[in-house]
Design goal:
By secondary structure, this protein is an alpha+beta fold. It has one domain: 2-Layer Sandwich (Beta Polymerase, domain 2). The protein is globular.
């Protein structure tokens, strides 16, 4: 009976994957997704635009008071450099830190009103966390140095389960892994939203590596997981075992 059930599930999964290749069904799914999640996403972005300054100020204060190194990373770094503001369509903050500070960071944040809502781990120690403050969130990417200290690298994670539903909360879900390796330029002080933060010492070079030569031109359809970027390497769960736990729904 178990074998039959497993075979049936595989057949349904293959059928769903096939349907994704048919434009008509994909169009129907996109309409369904926008109706179900569009309003929630708009609300999340509205909360972010309203609260991101207070979020950054509080985060900055907590980490600076505890002597913890952090820097603007990914979309938040792009907004700082290109827009001198957060990106208009963004809905969270991206921060880089060093993995060796993970314990101190969790303790400091949870003691100051931040709630851990997502945590992703790879078997080799890779880590990504997401914290909520008020009604918006901040993604923390934990970096490590390469053996020769010429580069730093971090992991981000993707769940094959989408969308995440209540039944998936507080369960270990298998993840695929995206490894991002960047040159180690060191860091320098900067001011963003009246906060004393750090940024990579050569932000333009880092943003070129992450988003391409035309990163100064806004592209709403840009796919940050694009495989044409040399700084990114993809791993399936089988290649690099990783798991994630969602404590709250993403949207």
């Amino acid at each position: 009976m178990l074998k039959k059930s497993h075979g049936k599930m595989n057949t349904i999964k293959k059928l769903k994957e096939h349907m994704k290749t048919i434009p008509f069904f994909m169009g129907c799914y996109n309409v369904y997704f926008n109706l179900r999640f569009g309003q929630r996403l708009k609300k999340k972005r509205k909360n972010f635009q309203k609260e991101h300054v207070e979020l950054l100020q509080m985060f900055t204060k907590v980490l600076n008071d505890n002597g913890i190194q952090f820097w603007l990373e990914f979309g938040t770094l792009l907004g700082y450099y290109r827009e001198h503001d957060v990106i208009k369509h963004d809905d969270d903050l991206d921060i880089g830190v060093f993995l060796s500070d993970s314990g101190k960071i969790k303790k400091a944040l949870t003691e100051n009103g931040f709630k851990l809502i997502r945590e992703f781990r790879a078997d080799d120690g890779g880590l990504e966390e997401c914290y909520r403050y008020l009604h918006t969130s901040i993604d923390i990417f934990y970096f490590r140095n390469t053996d020769d200290n010429s580069s730093i690298y971090t992991y981000s994670f993707k769940s094959p389960v989408f969308p995440i539903k209540k039944k998936h909360l507080n369960k270990m879900l298998k993840m695929s892994v995206l490894k991002t390796t960047l040159k180690n330029y060191g860091f320098e002080r900067a001011v963003f939203k009246d906060c004393n933060v750090y940024i990579p010492s050569k932000p333009e070079e880092q943003l070129k590596a992450l988003y391409g030569e035309n990163f100064m031109v806004p592209d709403p359809s840009f796919d940050p997981r694009g495989k044409h970027f040399e700084c990114r390497t993809y791993f399936t769960h089988e290649e690099k075992p990783a798991f994630g736990v969602f404590m709250e729904l993403p949207l």
